[in-house]
Amino acid sequence: MQNLTTCALMPHPPIMIPEIGKSELDKIKTTVASAQLAAKIIKEQNPQTIIIITPHGPVFEDAASISIHPRLKGNFGAFGVPEVFLGFETDDLLTRHILKKTDLLGINLVELTDDMAKSYRLSLELDHGALVPLYYLSKAGFKGQLVHISVGMLSYEEMYTFGKAVQMAIDATGKRVAVIASGDLSHRLTPDAPAGYNPRAAEFDKQVLQAVQDLSVKALLQIDRKLVEAAGECGLRSIFFLLGVVGGTDASAELLSYEAPFGVGYGVAVITIKNKVKGAGERKNG
Fold first, then answer.
1. Which of 6, 44, 159, 231 could form a disulfide with 240 if both were Cys (CB 3.0 to 4.6 A apart)?
2. Which phi-psi region, left, alpha or beta, contains residue 106 (left: φ > 0; alpha: ψ -120 to 50)?
3. Rounded alpha-carbon distances, angstroms, from residue 118 to 58, 82, 122, 178, 275
4. Does residue 278 lie within any of the structural domains?
5. How confident is the model at residue 1 (pLDDT cuts 50, 70, 90)?
6. What angle do CA 265, 268, 270 make, to 5 degrees?
7. pLDDT tens sequence across 102-137
8. C-alpha span between 185 and 31 (Å, rounded)
9. Residue 286 included in any domain
10. What is the span of the domain harbouring residue 59?
């Protein structure tokens, strides 16, 4: 698939932002260095558009959602630094293709309009799940367009199919596109973790990251649902989506780093796309 340039899994703790983390940044320096490297790799492929999926935008029980405002912007005011601001032009063409392909595959995708935001009291600002990875892309020199997607509480299989719809949309536009799945792993890795401690949490992170490295949706689906619940994660649906985007391509994944200095698992991985999507019946990636 020649239009899909690179994909990545990136975490989103606001402490990764130097203006927020300050002296604490040293505790997460491995993740920061890997985010910088991932951003550099993505930028070197010269994408015209970045698609980012986040678990911290508006989340609906029965649908994922996509921002359709012509200008997407946000800042870190909620974390004390409103002066750290990012803004991007929306890729309207790609957004429209995504809406068409998701409808074709039976995935419920909601358009986030002004009226909907007012009705549901939603913010149309970029959330921190999107802003943290985009901060590093911006620092690497990315100045292209953006598609901002928020996960929905869809089944894991539906999130994978959603990714396949986005793959089809990318192919239809002819644009060079990179895709970022924003998501942290377990939130229960240490006794002082924000969501409490669960001794099974580390096993969840191990299994998820192995599935990402193997690009195996089958392995993800085989993870015990009780283990998923024990982990208290926020990135699994983003990862299912990501594997859908790369499903059927000749691709390879590299785990750049994993650490959990605050009891939350942060994984950074880059997926390199080699060739076009394979023909019918030539399935790869589980």
1. 159
2. left
3. 12, 23, 7, 31, 43
4. no
5. low
6. 155
7. 999 999 999 998 888 888 888 889 999 999 999 999
8. 13
9. no
10. 4-273
